[in-house]
């Protein structure tokens, strides 16, 4: 089909930008109705044990307090079917709030105070007296590493490490050059600006309209209907705007359960917002301890790759992510052994966080590659090029496309890599040591099935909808662009609706698959509308298109034009009026073409170059420059795409230098559960970031050729920075974050 693409690839502004900056965009905790009640969650002060006594008398005496829910009085209306799993649930049994007196992690919700005002509810919550029977928690991953086991069962899409190929241990022992080191990464917590919250509107007929902070409205709707035995028609979940989530909204969180429970029991509308501290109580990026061993010949040819990772999970679910598989894929090597194990701790189940697994495994691998480059005595970039994988050896498949070489070349050129002097401590800026480091990044390009609906009315306005989310990534904008482009309409005439469970089915927004999945559905449904319009246009009396076929016309500026003779055209409204059609409505399900896709490994790639300046007296590191060159297929909107990568790089700086949820092992509690002590990069930490998108054609991944850019931006950044710190100082710090104390 010949479509002149007017819009795809254009850096159009966010269609929802104005609503956001003017404060008109409403988030889950901002929907109001008269008589709304407010809930405040009481969190467990211990990590393990049971509640001996919970005394709510004092709290109930506070004026305006209506009810306090605990495990003792929780309504019988809730469920608890252990077989139910949400869309992002690992194997095991999901956490059930207020189920019984058992405490399985610190911060566990143990009561919900419901009052006329939020302040009243908060104050009353502070007066709930709890006596515990407390046991010592086991929360130290390193101390328990001997208990590590291989996960029993995967969740959908989880690829366990491939079987060993060749003889990695023997090849390592024989290798002329060896690196064998242990790397670690700490727990990190999602800290989106918007904290989790749910507002449940109790409608007069008992129906529930639920405003939830989520990455998947239908996932939340399913959860509510399964847990409370409601039909999906009785519950509508909406989430028109999400103030960041990064994975924390992939699973229904406990405030959703508590708010719905309270609303149904009290037959009132209820809101339950979580505090910033409570954002540290329902999932995190897991801690890892990783061994990477690389063996190479004296010219740097990789002969052995061993990557073993130990990560944590809770007592009730096996949270798994793909940490080590990348090491069998990113470079050519015939001897590879990969292993991934879990340790159960008295903590909440970890949850996906931007580029789950990859960001951790690739960090360790890419630091080890840098160490190897120094041992061999060649340039780190040259080492990567020497061992470039033309094929995915894990699965013995070709790549659907892989322009990583172009990333290396363009990134290095923009950064000025050729001017680097290889010796550590050889570059200076006055008193400061300067270091240049680089790393590779990789993520998957996935497509899930998704549907979309399109309604074109005779005034030329188009409404397209799908129950997807926009967690700040630009979904509203890019879907609008795809629809407008397919039908040749101005962007202003297209509205895209999302974040409503009553819309056509879509997966949770995650995995970098939204453009690929929902975008394909939007394109497909608009193509159906095109066909209908074209048939109508041909029948217009004296139509210049009467003898044309669909691939001989273009949809531009509200007209269907003969591509070769653009002055001969029929306008969309004319076609509809003539056919006496007031609106055209279509709905479509877009499925990934698995027979075609499964023959290939589909990935995004990146090359990250970082400059640091280190003050040795203070141990401080400034990341003064980052160049990130991305191969992500076709870029539909360079502006929103660049923002995704900028965000990823900023987070990579945080991962390298600042972020760490520090556990008090005695209490089993995260001690820095606030933004004063959980450090994230601020403006002063973020200097020059340069994003390059290299050309990459891919007709395999989906009909749009776009691979998705949500996660790739962060992968490799921490390694590039750690490697730059080595180059600056000659010191290898192998445990993140690289805080000043580690450099003194
Ligand atoms: Mo992302 S961690 O799939 O929201």
TrEMBL record:
Identify the Gene3D superfamilies for this entry.
Aldehyde oxidase/xanthine dehydrogenase, a/b hammerhead, Aldehyde oxidase/xanthine dehydrogenase, molybdopterin binding domain
Positions of the Aldehyde oxidase/xanthine dehydrogenase a/b hammerhead domain: 22-136
Origin superkingdom = Bacteria
Specify where the region named Disordered lies, as residue ranges.
135-169
Q: Which SMART domains match?
A: Ald_Xan_dh_C (SM01008)
Q: Where is the composition biased (Basic and acidic residues)?
A: 135-156
Q: Which PANTHER family match?
A: DEHYDROGENASE (PTHR11908:SF153), XANTHINE DEHYDROGENASE (PTHR11908)
Protein name listed in UniProt: Xanthine dehydrogenase family protein molybdopterin-binding subunit
Query: What is the taxonomic lineage of the source species?
Result: Bacteria, Pseudomonadati, Myxococcota, Myxococcia, Myxococcales
């Amino acid at each position: 089909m010949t479509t002149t693409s007017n819009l795809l690839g254009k850096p159009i502004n966010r269609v929802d930008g104005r609503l956001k900056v003017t404060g008109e965009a409403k988030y889950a905790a901002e929907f109001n109705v008269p008589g709304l009640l407010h809930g405040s969650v009481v969190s467990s002060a211990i990590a393990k044990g049971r509640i001996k006594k919970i005394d709510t008398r004092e709290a109930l005496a506070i004026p305006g307090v209506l009810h306090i829910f605990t495990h003792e009085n929780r309504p019988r209306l809730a469920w608890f079917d252990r077989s139910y799993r949400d869309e992002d649930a690992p194997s095991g049994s999901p956490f059930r709030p207020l189920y019984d007196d058992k405490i399985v992690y610190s911060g566990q919700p143990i009561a919900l105070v419901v009052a006329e005002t939020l302040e009243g509810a908060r104050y009353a919550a502070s007066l709930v007296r709890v006596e515990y029977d407390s046991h010592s928690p086991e929360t130290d991953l390193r101390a328990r590493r001997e208990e590590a086991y291989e996960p029993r069962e995967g969740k959908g899409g989880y690829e366990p490490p491939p079987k060993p190929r060749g003889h990695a241990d023997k090849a390592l022992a024989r290798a002329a050059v060896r690196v064998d080191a242990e790397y670690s990464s700490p727990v990190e917590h999602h800290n989106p600006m918007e904290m989790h919250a749910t507002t449940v509107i109790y409608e007069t007929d008992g129906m529930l309209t639920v405003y939830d902070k989520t990455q998947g409205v239908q996932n939340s709707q399913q959860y509510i209907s399964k847990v409370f035995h409601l039909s999906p028609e009785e519950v509508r979940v909406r989430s028109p705007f999400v103030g960041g989530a990064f994975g924390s909204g992939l699973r229904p969180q406990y405030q959703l359960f508590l708010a719905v429970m309270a609303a149904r029991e009290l037959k009132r509308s209820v809101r339950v917002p979580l505090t910033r501290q409570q954002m540290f109580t329902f999932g995190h990026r897991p801690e890892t301890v990783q061994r990477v061993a690389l063996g190479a010949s004296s010219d740097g040819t990789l002969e052995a790759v061993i990557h073993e990772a130990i990560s944590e999970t809770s007592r009730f679910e096996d949270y798994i992510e793909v940490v080590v598989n990348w090491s069998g894929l990113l470079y050519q090597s015939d001897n590879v052994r990969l292993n991934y194990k879990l340790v159960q701790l008295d903590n909440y189940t970890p949850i996906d966080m931007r580029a789950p697994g990859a960001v951790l495994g690739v960090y360790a691998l890419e630091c080890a590659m840098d160490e190897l480059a120094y041992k061999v005595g060649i340039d780190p970039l040259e080492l990567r090029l020497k061992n470039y994988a033309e094929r995915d050896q894990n699965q013995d498949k070709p790549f659907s496309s892989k322009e990583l070489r172009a990333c290396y070349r363009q990134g290095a050129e923009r950064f000025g890599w050729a001017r680097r002097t290889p010796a550590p401590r050889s570059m200076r800026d006055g008193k400061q040591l300067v270091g240049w480091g680089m790393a590779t990044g990789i993520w998957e390009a996935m497509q899930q099935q998704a549907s979309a609906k399109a309604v074109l009315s005779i005034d030329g306005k188009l409404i397209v909808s799908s129950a997807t989310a926009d967690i700040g990534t630009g979904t509203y904008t890019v879907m609008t662009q795809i629809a407008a482009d397919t039908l040749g309409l101005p962007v202003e005439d297209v509205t895209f609706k999302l974040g409503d469970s009553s819309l056509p089915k879509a997966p949770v927004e995650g995995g970098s698959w939204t453009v690929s999945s929902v975008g394909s559905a939007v394109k497909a449904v608009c193509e159906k509308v095109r066909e209908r319009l074209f048939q109508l246009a041909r029948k217009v009396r004296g139509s210049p298109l009467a003898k044309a076929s669909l691939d001989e016309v273009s949809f531009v500026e509200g007209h269907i034009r003969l591509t070769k003779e653009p002055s001969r055209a029929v306008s969309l409204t004319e076609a509809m009026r003539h056919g006496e059609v007031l609106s055209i409505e279509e709905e479509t399900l877009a499925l990934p073409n698995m027979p075609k896709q499964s023959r290939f490994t589909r990935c995004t790639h990146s090359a990250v170059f970082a400059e640091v300046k280190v003050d040795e007296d203070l141990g401080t590191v400034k990341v003064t420059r980052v160049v990130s060159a991305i191969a992500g297929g076709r870029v539909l909107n360079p502006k929103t795409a660049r923002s995704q990568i900028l965000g990823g790089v900023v987070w990579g700086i945080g991962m390298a230098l600042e972020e760490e949820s520090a556990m008090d092992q005695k209490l089993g509690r995260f001690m820095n559960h606030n933004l004063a002590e959980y450090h994230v990069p601020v403006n002063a930490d973020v200097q020059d970031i340069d994003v390059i998108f290299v050309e990459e054609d891919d007709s395999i991944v989906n009909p749009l050729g776009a691979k998705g850019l949500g996660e790739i931006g962060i992968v490799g950044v921490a390694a590039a920075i750690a490697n730059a710190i080595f180059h600056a100082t000659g010191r290898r710090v192998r445990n993140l974050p690289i805080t000043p104390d580690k450099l003194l």
